[in-house]
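Deliverable D2.4 — example input (structure tokens):
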């Protein structure tokens, strides 16, 4: 498998660069003119935020491998993943309230401290300590994807009084650079873990300096800010639940997100045990996956610019994902294992992920009421995480190989249901309601 991973990485990178170039060339962004204050503010945010993103991505390729290297069985590793998912949902719901009460800058600093501690806990072979480390890691992930962006948005509007229309300019650049950072992180992780032969714990130690750098810059260069509106968590949650119950479009979106993303998290867990017996470079495999997500994102942008309905693009992503999991049902059969085809199937799935995320982002802008968006998304995460945790906890009733195949069969069923919900959503969402990107 070593050869195919490197060859595919080169070929996919070339394809990705071409598609990204076409997408960027054809996409029109609001002009920010030559505003030096905005450019400086944006650059300072990037310099602080990107090391935090790099620290998160560095831990992706070798997490499962590390636990396996320590001698834990697959069902024990599944419990560790469940702990991470559970802590993510718990803190993800409360993060806005913490930001309102304690301040976003403090949360960003707290993120770097907690995540650093979680990384150091990976040095231990004691299962209980690794469980605590996974819980801290899940908490950190929730803070990463809320606190930093919330801090930026507040500073952009309230402190610097820049136009709100410029906010997407910043986050579109963040999305592009996030993909590049993810790809490079896979290579760096592979370099330390395999090329330098430092073992699967090495990427976690490399992440710590990134976290320290980010935390130092946040603590010394960022000003504290708080929400301008006091959040009433109970009231907000109940209003969000009421919207889901009374609005069929929102209910369909919640079902689609829960089903698709639960499958996505299962794939995050299972790709290593499926491919690792073939002795690939796991960091390069991870980079392949990240390039595929960028390809999916670029394809979404190009097709959207040609006027394709996001609901139809969402259908495409579901069909690709379903094709991928069905392929894995056959390629993981204990008597007919084909890891190269499994690798190709995983790459198809990641392309589907790239299309899915941007399609759902477009639909959320139209379907979800802005005032209740955060609480609705919090409710969406409840069945998502419960479903993921349930599948992982029920993992491998027989042998590991049969357990992997059974998981792919279940994932195929979930994606089939998600596809049916996409068709229902398409029937109730008018084309005129869709906000297409770049229009």
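Example output (designed residues):
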């Amino acid at each position: 498998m070593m050869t195919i991973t490197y060859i595919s990485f080169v070929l996919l990178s070339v394809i990705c660069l071409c598609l990204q170039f076409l997408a960027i060339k054809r996409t029109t962004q609001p002009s920010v003119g030559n505003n030096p204050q905005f450019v400086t503010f944006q650059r300072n945010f990037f310099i602080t935020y990107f090391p935090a993103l790099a620290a998160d991505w560095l831990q992706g390729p070798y997490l499962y491998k590390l636990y396996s290297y320590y001698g834990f069985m697959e069902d024990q590793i599944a419990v560790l993943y469940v702990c991470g998912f559970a802590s993510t949902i718990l803190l993800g719901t409360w993060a806005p309230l913490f930001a309102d009460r304690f301040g976003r800058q403090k949360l960003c600093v707290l993120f770097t401290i907690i995540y650093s501690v979680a990384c150091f806990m990976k040095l231990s072979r004691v299962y209980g300590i690794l469980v605590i480390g996974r819980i801290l890691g899940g908490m950190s992930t929730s803070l990463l994807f809320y606190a930093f962006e919330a801090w930026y948005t507040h500073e952009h509007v309230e402190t610097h009084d820049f136009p709100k229309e410029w906010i997407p300019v910043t986050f579109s650049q963040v999305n592009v650079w996030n993909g590049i950072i993810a790809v490079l992180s896979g290579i760096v992780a592979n370099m330390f873990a395999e090329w330098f032969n430092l073992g699967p714990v090495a990427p976690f130690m490399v992440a710590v300096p990134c976290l320290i750098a980010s935390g130092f810059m946040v603590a010394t260069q960022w000003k504290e800010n708080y929400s301008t509106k006091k959040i009433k968590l109970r009231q907000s949650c109940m209003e969000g639940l009421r919207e889901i119950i009374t609005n069929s479009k929102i209910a369909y979106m919640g079902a689609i997100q829960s089903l698709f993303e639960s499958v996505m998290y299962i794939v995050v867990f299972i790709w290593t045990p499926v491919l690792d017996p073939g002795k690939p470079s796991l960091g390069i495999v991870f980079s392949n996956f990240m390039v595929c997500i960028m390809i999916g994102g670029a394809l979404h942008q190009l097709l959207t610019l040609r006027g394709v309905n996001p609901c139809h693009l969402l259908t495409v992503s579901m069909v690709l994902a379903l094709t991928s999991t069905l392929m894995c049902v056959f390629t993981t059969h204990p008597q007919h294992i084909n890891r190269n085809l499994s690798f190709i199937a995983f790459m198809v799935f990641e392309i589907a992920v790239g299309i899915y995320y941007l399609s759902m982002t477009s639909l959320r802008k139209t379907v979800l009421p802005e005032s209740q968006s955060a609480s609705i998304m919090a409710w969406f995460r409840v069945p998502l995480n419960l479903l993921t945790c349930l599948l992982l906890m029920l993992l491998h009733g027989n042998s590991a190989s049969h357990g992997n195949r059974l998981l792919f069969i279940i994932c195929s069923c979930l994606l089939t249901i998600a596809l049916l919900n996409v068709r229902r959503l398409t029937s109730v969402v008018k084309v005129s309601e869709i906000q297409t990107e770049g229009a």
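The chain has a mean pLDDT of 89.
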